[in-house]
Structure formats: C-alpha cells, structure tokens
Amino acid sequence: MKKLLSVVVLLTLLLGVAPSGFADKKLTSYTLLVNAEPVSLSSSTGYIAKTSNGRLMLPLKKICQELGLETKMNGKKKQLTVTLNSGKKLVATSGSKVIKVGSSKKTLKSKCYMQSGKVLMADAGILSYMGYTYRKAATSSDLIARGYKGSVVSIGKKGTTPKIPALPDNSAVSKLDAAQETDQIIYVQYKGGSKAKVSMYQKNKYDRWTLVKSANGYVGKNGIDKKKEGDKRTPTGTYNLTQAFGILKDPGTALPYVKVTKYHYWCGDSTSKYYNQLIDTRVTGRKRTSKDEYLINYKGAYNYAIFIDYNKEGTPYKGSCIFLHCSTGRATAGCVSVPQSTMVTFLRKLKPGAKIVIE
C-alpha cells in the first residue's frame, strides 16, 4: 500500500508540474522585457521555459501583472482568470491546451502546466489572444553590446515588433563624472602600494561603457595623491590624454605623436618658463639641464607614452613629467605604467578628447 501511495504522489507531482511528454527546461539566462522594460523573475514568479517540442512557455500571472491586467488564481482548479483590456475574461487551466476567451474556445500548441507546483505556465501563443505579441532574440554580439548576457524575450502590443532597448548601464565607469564628458576613459584603480588596475573603456552606440583592454599596472613608488615635485606619488583625479610620444615609431594613433630623438626632453625645472613641457632644442634653443627628463634615455619605459595633463599650466613645484607609459616591472616615479602591448592597444584605440581617471 505504501508503494502504491508513493507512485500516486509521484504521478500527481509530475502532472502538476509539467504535462506528460514535456520537459520543463527553465531558461534562466533569458531576459524578459515587457513593454521594453526588464522584468525580474524568480522561483516565486516563474521562469521562462521551453518544452521538449520547442514551445516557449511564459509565467502568465507575472506577465499580466507587468501589463497591468487583473488576474485571479483558483488554486484548486489550477486555473488562472485574466481580465483583458477588452473586458473579456481569459481562462487558462493547467494540463489543458484549450483556453477560453470570453465565450470562445482557443487551442494553444502546448498544454499549460504548473511550474514548481505553484506558477501557471502558458504557451507564448496565448499572447495573441490577449492583444500582445512577442519577439525572441538569441544571444548575439548586438545583444551583448546592449548589455544582455543571454537571449531575450520581449513582449509588446500586437501589430508592432517589440523593441529590445539597451539595458541601463550601472557599471562603475558609467558613474564617473568623466563619463558625461567623453566617450573614452582610461580608468586607473589603485590597489595599494605601487600597484593598480588600468583599464580602457569606450562608450558604444547604445551609450554603454564596454571594456577595450585591462591590465595590471604600476603607479608611484609612494602610491597616489601627488602634492609636489619629487614626492614619487601619482596624482589622483581626472585628466586629459593629449600628447603622445615614444622612442619607437608611431604605432598608428589618432593622438598627436612625436617620435623622440636626441633633441627632445621634458622640462622638469620649476624655475623655467618651459616647466612641464615637451621641448625640442632645435625650436627653443634651451639646453637640457639635470632637472629635465632626457626622454631617449628611458628605453623601455618611454618606448610609448602619453602625457597626462596634470599641472599642464606649469605651476612651479607642483609636479611634472606625469605620463602613461610602458611598464618596466616596477613602481614609477609618479607616472602610470602598463605592459607595452597594452600601451600599443591604448594608442591605437584612443582618440582626441579621451580622459584618464585615477582613484
């Protein structure tokens, strides 16, 4: 008798969860949109699912709530009644393909059933009888660019193609003040000591910030928050990335680029009118001093570099020669450094107007 009762209970559960011959595969990676707005799904509201015959099944009550339609659930009959915008009642029952719309009966291609024993799931075809339609989009590079991690089901008014807009961008980089001023940001996140994570982000056509390249990098020997010349700290804040230069030839950047020679140096003398400027002795006639950085002597580090326009006005003793440059595998004297391959990528991707944020 106990075995018989166990079999009866098992059959009841199976029939209550999904009709015979159908496997309830929950599509938890899918995003559900109703009237172009994302809808949160859970075990209590029900998940989008697909049956073994390929039919898309939707949590009817949750969708009706999002559409502003009144519903009433009869738990004993496992039956959901929906009041449509037309005033008609739509009735869907677990275990049946047949639904009632007013006084008419309509047949779906797959039976309704109870997901997890508590949520009525209905064939997506039911939407046409409710005055709505849906669009299913598989994962693609375009969906990823819009911010979706999986496929999408979008529900909208009948007679239109439901839109799939970009999801809101809540990333850390989107919250930076600089995100309102430029489409490209080098984001330097200080990790303590002289280490940092350096990432390039670019805004795409959907106004979402996408990662271009990220690498572990270095900042000043004494960390960040620069105050004065020679403190071996990297400045914090937001700065423009303007002049690019390097010992090696231009790798193909849209930024102004100078291939440095024996005639070039960066002025580090606070008493000079050229303080914190790139100098070509053939133009200025000013000879290099011991306080200046003779760029061509910094092979490796200055194979490629970009001026971070900290103290661009040349305030004496505030600090100079702050660059984004190639890493030498150790702390800098106040610059930001990344591997040379990363610098090449940055240079090839960056455009005038890009900013660097250090924090």
Structural write-up:
Strands 15, 16, 17, 18, 19, 22, 23, 24 and 25 form a 9-stranded mixed β-sheet that branches. Strands 1-4-5-12-11 form a 5-stranded antiparallel β-sheet. The protein has a 5-stranded antiparallel β-sheet with strand order 6-7-8-9-10. 13% of the residues lie in helices and 33% in strands. The N terminus is likely disordered. The protein contains 6 helices and 25 strands. It is α+β, with helices and mostly antiparallel strands.
Largest beta sheet, briefly? 9 strands, mixed
- Which spans of ≥5 residues are poorly predicted at pLDDT below 50? 1-22
Portion of residues in helices?
10-25%
What would the principal axes of the Cα set say about the shape?
Answer: rod-shaped
What are the main properties of this structure?
359 residues; alpha+beta; nine-stranded mixed beta sheet; five-stranded antiparallel beta sheet; 6 helices; 33% strand; rod-shaped; disordered N terminus
